[in-house]
Amino acid sequence: MVKAKKYVVKKYFEGVPKRSDFELVEYELPPLKDGEVLVKTEWVSVDPYLRAYNRNVPVPYDQYGFQVGIVEQSNDTNYPVGARIVTHKGWCDYTVVNTSKVSTGNSTEVTYKLPDLKGMSPSIGIGAVGMPGITAYFGFLELCQPKIGETVVVTGAAGAVGSIVGQIAKIKGCKVIGFAGSDDKVKWLEKELGFDKAINYKTADVQKALQAAAPNGVDCYFDNVGGEISSIIMGQMNKRGRVSVCGSISAYNADPTQIPKATILQPSIVFKELRIEGFVVQRWLDRWPEAITQLITWIKMGQLKPAEHVTVGFDKIFDAFVGMLAGENTGKAVVKI
Ligand SMILES: NC(=O)C1=CN([C@@H]2O[C@H](COP(=O)(O)OP(=O)(O)OC[C@H]3O[C@@H](n4cnc5c(N)ncnc54)[C@H](OP(=O)(O)O)[C@@H]3O)[C@@H](O)[C@H]2O)C=CC1
Ligand SMILES: CCCCCCC/C=C/C=O
């Protein structure tokens, strides 16, 4: 018998999630059936959608999320002992995985072999080459359809998705402006990632700073945060600009009955003929391998930097989660178990 530990959400979050909303449960895993493997967790991902989707399922629920683990026992020849696997089994130290369960666009089950990362840390498989990188790849390229020389703005620019969006935009020959929440992040975006301009949204006059950075207007906006800053950016878009709405983290901790208001956007949408589209990355689940291959190639060619913010310890997953929501991470927030 293998003893396992997992985080269970026992209470819906109100505002910033609290440790007392979770219970740490220890239990015994059942023996493996045919087609099942025992996976020891190596890396756990903490992501904003774990906050945003909190009320989508009844409590109590096991805290799901992406993770990379190593197969310790196997009843599946496709996943021998020692193979690495990406699953959506979340915040646990051991889990039993039925590898034959097929992932679909509506499912919360995603299981695939960790791709050959060519010597990079397995954690990259849940970051720049995992769901967040894939989100950046399809959400930006498919919805924004960027062209050489266009001006691209990304919010949440120093995070897991935003940092990849900005770098892909540079690869595609665009001028890139990023908004992030600290001077250190701004410096990192400009000096390390090659953004043309980065702006601290907490201290700058966003309207004026963007006018100065993009005097000819904005062609593409990748929106990670929503709220007033997004209204300001959309108000400075060029005719037929494209907006990819990826998330709205500025309001995830808000009371759902008191969602903050932002400036009306319809005049810009109508007169500038903007195209605004939201998406969930599962839309392209059947094409994830295409994104994974391209992202690995860009990293190996030195065109894309896969930054990570690593927290160590199973007991620290909650802290890493609330730290990420508060902006402590630069790059992808992951926990080493
Ligand atoms: N549609 C989809 O399929 C997917 C959507 N997403 C969305 O993408 C967005 C980014 O996710 P991800 O890259 O994983 O997370 P990040 O790595 O960007 O981490 C979250 C970041 O959000 C920023 N933030 C926190 N509060 C605010 C606020 N009030 N206003 C502005 N920024 C804030 C913080 O950075 P800072 O210091 O700059 O404030 C923080 O570091 C989220 O909205 C998420 O829900 C992610 C994956 C898939
Ligand atoms: C198998 C579940 C995949 C979850 C994808 C998360 C999408 C995130 C949306 C908003 O943040």
TrEMBL record:
Question: Which named protein is this?
Answer: Prostaglandin reductase 1
Tell me the gene name.
LOC113394165
Q: Which SUPFAM superfamilies match?
A: GroES-like (SSF50129), NAD(P)-binding Rossmann-fold domains (SSF51735)
Organism lineage:
Eukaryota, Metazoa, Ecdysozoa, Arthropoda, Hexapoda
On whether Oxidoreductase is a keyword of this UniProt record, the answer is: yes
Catalyzed reaction equations: hexanal + NADP(+) = (E)-hex-2-enal + NADPH + H(+); dodecanal + NADP(+) = (2E)-dodecenal + NADPH + H(+); octanal + NADP(+) = (2E)-octenal + NADPH + H(+); nonan-2-one + NADP(+) = (3E)-nonen-2-one + NADPH + H(+)
Entry-linked InterPro entries: ADH-like_C (IPR013149), ADH_N_2 (IPR041694), ER (IPR020843), GroES-like_sf (IPR011032), MDR_fam (IPR045010), NAD(P)-bd_dom_sf (IPR036291), PTGR1 (IPR014190)
One CC-aspect GO term: cytoplasm
Task: Mention one GO biological process in which this protein takes part, according to its record.
Answer: prostaglandin metabolic process
